[in-house]
Predict the 3D structure of the following.
Amino acid sequence: MTTTPTGTVIALLDDCCRRALRLLSQTWSHACTAGKDPWQFAVLQSTLEAVGLTQAVLNRLENDGLIELATEYTRHGDPERRFRHCDNARRSRRLAAVLTAMGAELIPQLLEPETPTRVVPEWDSERRELRLGSAVVKQFLRPAPNQTLILDAFEEEGWPRRIDDPLPPREGVDPRTRLHDAIKHLNRRLTQPLLHFLGDGTSCGVVWHQRP
């Protein structure tokens, strides 16, 4: 199994995506420091696109619950910036983004460089048990082929921060939807909520994160 080649745009790992996500993380921090609504520090889509973040990646980050999108309609003289949430068909070039609470928690840690001493999970396919150190994170009591295929791939590759979608094609099944559903179920019924899995923003990969 191979990872995405260097130079391919992949959310959370590509340099352009890192710059954009770091910008969103910084504006969230500024809002918290100032004690203001994060939307007052929202970053316009045009600014994010200028550093290389595409609309497709924005949509995936929104679907994964890491960012929230809304259209700005601030007028001259308004005391504060104003936003309106609307569907994709009605979005305009005044689209802006902020991190969600989950994004504010996860993204700064996903942007941290990996170190040789980092603790990684361990997947025992025979016991069907996912562990982090001595803690059992998840125990599968029933077959869950899509979830275990993802864990098999992470274990095989030594738990890199991201892997490509390991699920084999199936006729009549949308691979993006299937991967999204598998990730969602991976995060359910955890014995201890020490790990979190999410899409990489492209619908083509999986990222893992250790919770505090």
